[in-house]
């Protein structure tokens, strides 16, 4: 009689035990689903972050490659010593005022667009990346070996400073001096063109900020393709 009563009590408790077990299982499954969803979201964010990191690494690798090439050229010049076939050239005269003028113009712009061959871009980065004001541009695009980049006015100051020093250094070889001079001149032309631009008719120059002109530096002497025919 006692055994039957105990069995009856256990049977009465069985639905509650089963219900609790099911509820605990459902709660565990829900927690796992939440955890899986959170992990998937973290993975998605990590993938986006990794993509941006890869782009930054590509830019840094290009910069390091250009710096290594510049260092190798400097070492070769140093090892050449007195037998260096390139005669030492005197620093350019009459460029100090021009230099200060261009620095002032660069300091006053938000950014400039530059278009050049990727080898020219590597040269430019290698020359100026050690400067105090150099920053990697936020936008760099390469199409058919041509680089299009947006560089800030601050970075442009670093570029001008590095190119001016290269031009003034008597130990600079002629090829490097001509390349530095060409880029320096194109930057100066673009900055002066912005400085000389006129405001729209009837509008004061101080109110041109709604649509300011952008300096476009093009280092490419190839003639434009005639598309009229």
What is the compact description of this entry?
This protein has five helices and four strands. It has helices at 2-80, 96-107, 118-128, 153-168, 174-196, and strands spanning 111-117, 139-143, 146-152, 215-218.
Index terms:
single chain; 229 residues; alpha+beta
Rounded mean pLDDT score: 76
Number of helices: 5
DSSP strand count: 4
Structural class, please?
A: alpha+beta
Computed Rg: 33 Å
Beginning-to-end CA distance, first to last residue: 112 Å
Sheet-strand content, in percent, reads 5-15%
Low-confidence stretches: 82-95, 198-209
Q: Biggest sheet, open or closed, and with what strands and sense?
A: 4 strands, mixed
Q: Please estimate the helix content.
A: 55-70%
What order do the SSEs take from the amino end to the carboxyl end, as H and E?
HHEHEEHHE
What does the overall shape look like?
Answer: elongated
Side by side, the strands of the main sheet go 2-3-1-4
Tell me what the structure shows.
This protein is of the alpha+beta class. 62% of the residues lie in helices and 10% in strands. The chain has five helices and four strands. The protein has helices at residues 2-80, 96-107, 118-128, 153-168, 174-196, and strands spanning 111-117, 139-143, 146-152, 215-218. It has a four-stranded mixed beta sheet with strand order 2-3-1-4. β2 (139-143) and β3 (146-152) form a beta hairpin. α2 packs antiparallel against α4. The model is unreliable at 82-95 and 198-209 (pLDDT under 50).
């Amino acid at each position: 009689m006692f055994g039957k009563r105990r069995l009856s009590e256990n049977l009465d408790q069985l639905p509650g035990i089963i219900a609790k077990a099911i509820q605990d299982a459902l709660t565990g499954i829900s927690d796992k689903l939440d955890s899986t969803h959170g992990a998937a979201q973290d993975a998605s964010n990590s993938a986006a972050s990794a993509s941006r990191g890869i782009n930054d690494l590509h830019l840094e690798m290009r910069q390091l490659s250009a710096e290594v090439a510049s260092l190798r050229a400097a070492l070769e010049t140093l090892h050449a010593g007195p037998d260096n076939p390139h005669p030492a050239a005197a620093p350019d005269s009459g460029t100090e005022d021009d230099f200060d003028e261009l620095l002032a113009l660069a300091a006053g712009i938000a950014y400039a667009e530059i278009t050049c061959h990727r080898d020219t871009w590597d040269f430019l980065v290698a020359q100026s990346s050690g400067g105090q004001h150099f920053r990697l541009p936020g936008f760099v695009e390469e199409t058919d070996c041509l680089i299009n980049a947006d560089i800030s006015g601050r970075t442009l100051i670093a570029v001008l400073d590095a190119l001016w020093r290269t031009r003034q250094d008597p130990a600079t070889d002629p090829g490097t001096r001509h390349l530095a001079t060409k880029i320096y001149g194109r930057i100066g032309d673009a900055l002066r063109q912005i400085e000389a631009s006129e405001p729209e008719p009837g509008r004061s120059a101080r109110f041109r900020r709604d649509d300011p002109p952008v300096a476009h530096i093009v280092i490419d002497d190839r003639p434009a393709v005639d598309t009229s025919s």
